[in-house]
């Protein structure tokens, strides 16, 4: 999915209702599931490429804010922009949980604990920020904004765009990429590989698909 795509949210619900799996894994940890039930995911990681573009501009401004504070501002600003347009980032997860409950499927929180992820992200940014400032790839991603926001959001659902964003992230912020993509890919793939459910649906961002598939294949090749 794309976390800011309204069509992704609808597609997730349709898929779960159609397939009627016994388990649904979502790209959330238990804390984030509870936060969603309490009213939203507005300060949770997702849409990493665009969020880091916001953060990179903040780092370049020379304001001298601590890394943790810059990170908090970048996340809030990133999600606040979408909410002001009536878009709820992560709506596909809400739909996935509701659809899972409707068909009697177990909801599996497949992601790393948000506290650990944010702590790791803060450390990674401290390691990567100078390299990020010198790297243009994050600011020059080939995404066509000319047709409006919704069309831009749909572009993020393509494997090609996801691969482009991930490649830029790996080059410009390797430690951030490890924390936000690779570690979480392996964790979510582990839940899928070890599952004893007859049929499962996994609901994850497009940027995680290739890594999850790779970890999946490596797991079964080594069994």
Automatic annotation (TrEMBL):
Domain of life, per lineage: Eukaryota
Family matches, as InterPro entries: TraB/PrgY/GumN_fam, TraB_PrgY-like
Stored Pfam families: TraB_PrgY_gumN
Alphabetized PANTHER family for the sequence: PHEROMONE SHUTDOWN PROTEIN, TRAB DOMAIN-CONTAINING PROTEIN
Protein name, UniProt field: TraB domain-containing protein
Organism: Perkinsus olseni
């Amino acid at each position: 999915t794309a976390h800011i795509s309204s069509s992704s949210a609808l597609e997730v619900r349709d898929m779960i209702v159609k397939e009627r799996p016994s388990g649904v894994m979502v790209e959330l940890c238990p804390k984030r599931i509870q936060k969603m039930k309490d009213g939203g995911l507005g300060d949770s990681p997702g849409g990493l490429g665009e969020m880091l573009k916001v953060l990179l501009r903040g780092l370049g401004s020379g304001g001298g804010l601590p890394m943790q504070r810059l990170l908090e501002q970048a996340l809030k600003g990133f999600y606040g922009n979408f909410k002001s347009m009536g878009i709820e980032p992560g709506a596909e997860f809400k739909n996935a949980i509701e659809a899972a409950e409707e068909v009697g499927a177990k909801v599996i929180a497949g992601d790393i604990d948000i506290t650990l992820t944010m702590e790791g992200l803060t450390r990674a940014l401290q390691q990567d920020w100078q390299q990020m400032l010198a790297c243009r790839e994050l600011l020059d991603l080939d995404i066509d904004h000319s047709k409006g926001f919704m069309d831009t959001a749909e572009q993020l659902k393509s494997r090609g765009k996801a691969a482009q964003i991930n490649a830029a992230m790996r080059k410009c912020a390797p430690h951030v990429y490890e924390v936000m993509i690779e570690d979480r890919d392996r964790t979510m793939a582990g839940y899928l590989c070890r599952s004893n459910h007859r049929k499962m649906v996994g609901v994850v961002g497009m940027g995680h698909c290739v890594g999850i598939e790779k970890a999946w294949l490596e797991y079964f090749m080594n069994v």
